[in-house]
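May I ask for whichever protein you like with its backbone structure tokens?
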Amino acid sequence: MTLADLPLLNASLNATSAALLVLGYAFIRNGHVRLHRAAMVGAFLVSTVFLVSYLIYHGNVDSKPFPGRGAIRPVYFAILITHIILAAAVPPLALITLTRGLRARFERHVAVARWTLPIWLYVSVTGVIVYVMLYRFY
């Protein structure tokens, strides 16, 4: 694997995280606590691998400018800016949520999970969208 492979790996990790988050939510809504826990721990681990890969890539490669022109530019930048801002919130939110769940502090876990899940899911999905727009769209 080379540095050039990391953007696709990162998008794949984001997609996997999003899928695990959706599964985890579905599991808990249906009372499957163990499956919920496994999916959410999996999402956390996949997101951690993503973060390491992302930092390696951007520590070695300059940012790629968006090649699109016209009306797609503000759409791309709106997605990118909200993605970046919310991405900064995901690690602490995910860590707090996971810790509270694993320590069986369920009331506090649910209170923060209501915020963590949509933010984390948005960041994971928009990470894939940003990849597609940067590397596959043009």
In short: The chain is about 85% helix and 0% strand. The chain has a mean pLDDT of 97.
